[in-house]
Write a structure and sequence with these properties.
The complex is a heterotetramer, with two copies of chain A (about 150 residues) and two copies of chain B (about 80 residues). With about 150 residues, chain A is an alpha+beta fold. Chain A has helices at about 10-20, 60-75, 105-120; strands spanning about 1-5, 30-40, 40-45, 45-55, 80-85, 85-90, 95-100, 125-130, 135-140. With about 80 residues, chain B is an alpha+beta fold. Classes of the chains: A alpha+beta (about 150), B alpha+beta (about 80). Chains in contact: A-B, A-C, C-D. Strand 2 (about 30-40) of chain A pairs antiparallel with strand 2 of chain C, so a sheet runs across the interface.
């Protein structure tokens, strides 16, 4: 299980492959479910120029570890990865990647979505957007991700 | 005597005008009463509260050495 | 929308990035949901040495196009990719990758899972396993992926 | 006269002993009757049937030039 909070641009595919090439996983996982959140250049009808992600260092790690531990109890997970960006972010840069490896697909799908929804609800990150007008605003609330 | 650290994040940090302060109390208080003790304005609705980096209810009472954090709804991911 | 049936080993991350670097998507997608199916070295309690994937050429493409079209009607999808392997496959090689790009995460999550389940149920592929004993057997049925 | 192509895949192809054959009929038949016309053994339960690469029911009647495929449950992905 890997949790990383990073302050500079990261490559989600490099991070995933980095975990996956661990020899222990070879031939054992049949399913990988991945979610990547990427910064858009629009939000709530406005063009967005940049974003700053603030977080509560220490608590972030603690909450993400708790989410991972619960996911591991609920589903048959072989490994999981969370990488989350903080600091100044530009459109088209990745914000978060979650990857879950399991033997069978239902476990990977369910656990990946669970981790993402819990992260959105409980991990102490806050987004401040800089609009195209250079006006800044805090994002007030995450939208729901469940149907 | 109980000494605690208060922390504020994001928009609440900007409203409060500081990110951190230390408070010394004669007796334990709930986290809601701590807010009332320190701030003139009522605790904004939807504010989340953590003690030692775990979420707590407003009625949670602090211990000596606790770190109490107040922050708006989280918006990561 | 991209559908590929490939006869040799492919790199799922390369295929995904290949679609993603299309300029049209830049800044527009906030969510990418990916599923990768990888060959395991065990199945139904037996060690598996290799696998051969047969398919019904033409019908495969037709069914996958239909699945993609339905997903596009049901959810707000910006782009989607399916790559599926056929022929001789070894453990740890990718069998299938599905990637869905959308503005918001619920669409990507739902559509990716839908495409995978429909592919499992309707796309005319058949797996024949070679066990460690060199005995071969057809996989009889896909297991369920919904909870 | 109706001429159709029959195709078999995977384990069913191995059971039938061939992957493809051409059949000429005086009149249209359902796909189930085509199977009965050609094979001594009953159509295995769970067999899927496609005409021109689209799934059909056993009661589907063929047209001249159709490609009719019989195959076991699919196991891709």
């Amino acid at each position: 299980m890997t949790i990383k909070i990073v302050e500079t641009v990261f490559d989600p595919f490099f991070e995933i492959q980095n975990v996956q090439t661990q020899l222990a996983l070879n031939g054992k996982f049949g399913a990988t479910s991945i979610f990547i959140g990427t910064m858009r250049d629009f939000n709530e009808g406005d063009e967005v120029r940049a974003m700053t992600l603030e977080h509560y260092e220490g608590m972030t790690q603690k909450q993400l570890e708790k989410i991972m531990a619960i996911a591991k109890e609920k589903w048959g997970i072989l490994d999981a990865l969370i990488v989350h960006r903080v600091g100044d972010i530009l459109p088209n840069e990745p914000i978060v990647v979650i990857s879950v490896w399991s033997a069978h697909r239902a476990d990977a799908f369910d656990a990946c979505r669970y981790i993402m929804e819990e992260l959105k609800s409980n991990a102490p990150f806050w987004k401040r957007e800089t609009l195209i007008s250079n006006q800044t605003r805090w994002v007030l609330k995450n939208t729901g991700g469940k149907n | 005597m109980i000494t605690i650290t208060l922390r504020y994040f994001a928009s609440l940090r900007e409203q409060v005008g500081r990110s951190q302060e230390t408070l010394t109390l004669a007796n334990t208080l709930t986290v809601l009463d701590i807010w009332r003790h320190v701030h003139q304005v009522p605790l904004p609705e939807n504010t989340l509260i953590a003690v030692n980096m775990e979420y707590v209810a407003k009625s949670h009472s602090v211990c000596d050495g606790d770190e109490v954090a107040f922050f708006p709804p989280v918006t990561g991911g």
